[in-house]
Design a protein that fits this description.
It comes from Platanthera guangdongensis. Residues 451-461 have a biased composition (Polar residues). The chain crosses the membrane at residues 375-399. It contains 5 helices and 22 strands. By secondary structure, it is an alpha+beta fold. The chain folds into 4 domains: 12-78, no CATH class; 93-220, Mannose-6-phosphate receptor binding domain (Cation-dependent Mannose-6-phosphate Receptor, Chain A), CATH 2.70.130.10; 234-366, Immunoglobulin-like, CATH 2.60.40; 381-426, no CATH class. Strands 9-10-11-13-12 form a 5-stranded mixed β-sheet, with no helix packed on it. The longest helix is centred in the last third of the chain and has 35 residues, at 368-402. The radius of gyration is 46 Å and the shape is elongated.
């Protein structure tokens, strides 16, 4: 723009969209909707309004690239495929027969009432089942874990189980759980068509012979199907654990960044163990990751990440033989807030498994190659010193044996100094004396004693010989 002279009064319409942000929303909308009129926001000397794009009538190349980039970024960030399949915050959910997640959290505690002659049956959705009469309340069980909510069959879409009810007159039930209840859920209306309204109703009630178990059928307008969950898939920090993903659902704490679930700087590697049902293990594809910082820095800088292990090489995970995904990350820049790494595991025919790992970078971490290089240098220097020491010892030994005519330990280099040091530490010898001829006194005394005994024996034999003659 510096090579052209543009008049402030007459050439507003020549500025491209990439150099103006006063009406970016209008520009993006005009491009997506192919409506040029939405972009006419600045005055022009010709018609009073002019397009924000270069040339006044056509989109410039830079503007097109800019708008396409904005549109793709928006689609990527707000696409449903970018959201992980997270376990609901309540246990009021179920997977239908096609493995789609159906969340009934909004229905939790909703009351369904069926009026009878002796009393009313009240179902509090995902809470409990009660029989209410003038004599009091009878509890037919309470809703517990999410495995009490499963898919049904036939005309029944879902089944809820309620256990641990009142024990009065039901102490001898086969499961020892007191009164129980089963609620069959049908999406839509009752089979008889008697249920109307948007909040559902109770279609029928059936008791067993002992009235320790009640079967309730209700009809409700079911919510829209959610993601398709890859059942049986787990991810954990141990081959038999599932802290990150359980039954195909990302667990709370790893669905988005959490301070209390972040890893420290000293943790340079994280091992993740993947398991799946053997018959469906071939559907799991190679994991990948996305990375960015909360500080909005360059995604390619600050944290070096590599994925390795059997899972990264494409090995199918099974229950008996889990595959391992090694996340190697090294801090290159120090930040006060953690880095976020979104790991995605594609599954053919299902929504991808996605979870988030975060790491604090309190100091810079050196490369593993640098540390190995230091140890290698130390080893080479040590080997060179050992070889030089052995060569010098051999040369000194040869010199002392050939030139100085020394033998044994005295010919080894440094033995004289070593013996002096040992004598200085242990002190001088007490009974170790060398004579002039090189023999010690003990040997001399022993030789003189032997000579004395020999002469004595000779004298004794001579006397014996004379006695015999006499």
């Amino acid at each position: 723009m510096s090579s052209y002279h543009i008049s402030r009064e007459t050439s507003y319409h020549l500025f491209p969209v990439t150099q103006d942000a006063s009406a970016s929303a209008y520009q993006i909308m005009s491009y997506l909707l192919l409506n040029h009129e939405m972009a006419r926001v600045l005055p022009s000397p010709d018609s009073g309004v002019a397009e924000m794009f270069l040339g006044g009538g056509r989109l410039s190349t830079g503007s097109c690239y800019y708008l396409i980039g904005c549109a793709l970024s928006a689609l990527y960030l707000y696409s449903p495929f970018a959201v992980s399949v997270v376990v609901p915050y309540s246990n009021c959910y179920a997977l239908d027969n096609s493995s789609h997640l159906v969340d009934f959290t909004d229905w939790t505690g909703h009351i369904f009432t069926h009026e009878g002659k002796d009393g009313d049956v009240v179902v509090r959705f995902c809470k409990d089942v009660e029989f209410r009469s003038q004599t009091g309340y009878i509890d037919f069980g309470r809703f517990g874990a999410s495995n009490y909510f499963v898919a049904g069959s036939g005309s029944i879409d879902f089944v809820q189980g309620f256990y641990n009810g009142d024990l009065t007159n039901c102490e001898h039930t086969f499961d020892k759980l007191g009164r129980t209840a089963q609620v069959n859920i049908m999406c839509g209306n009752c089979l008889s068509g008697g249920c109307k309204g948007e909040f559902g109703c109770i279609c029928s009630i059936t008791y067993d012979a002992s009235k320790c178990r009640v079967l309730v059928e209700i009809a409700i307008p079911c919510t829209k199907l959610g993601f398709r969950v890859f059942e049986g898939f787990t991810v954990g920090f141990h081959p038999r654990s599932w802290e990150v993903v359980y039954n195909g659902l990302t667990q709370i704490g790893f669905e988005k960044p959490h301070h209390e679930f972040s890893f420290g700087t000293d943790n340079s590697q994280v091992s993740l163990y993947l398991t799946a049902i053997s018959s469906l293990a071939g559907l799991v594809k190679t994991p990948s990751y996305k990375f960015f910082s909360f500080l909005q820095v360059n995604p390619e800088e600050g944290l070096e990440i590599t994925l390795s292990g059997s899972a990264a090489s494409g090995m199918a995970p099974t229950t008996l033989s889990p595959s391992v995904l090694l996340v190697n990350w090294r801090c290159e820049k120090i930040h006060d807030r953690p880095y976020e790494i979104d790991i995605s595991i594609p599954v053919k025919g299902y929504d991808p498994i996605e979870f988030t790992l975060t790491k604090f970078c309190g100091y810079k971490q050196g490369r593993e190659v640098d540390s190995l290089r230091g140890w290698a240098t130390f080893g080479i220097i040590s080997c060179v010193l050992i070889v030089l020491l052995l060569a010098s010892c051999c040369g000194g030994f040869i010199y002392k044996t050939r030139v100085e005519h020394q033998h044994g330990l005295d010919a080894l280099p440094g033995m004289t100094i070593l013996s002096v040091c040992l004598e200085a530490v242990s002190g001088p010898p007490r009974s170790y004396h060398l004579g002039d001829d090189g023999f010690d006194g003990n040997y001399v005394r022993q030789a003189s004693w032997e000579r004395a005994s020999t002469s004595h024996q000779g004298t004794q034999r001579a006397s014996e010989r004379r006695s015999g003659q006499t």
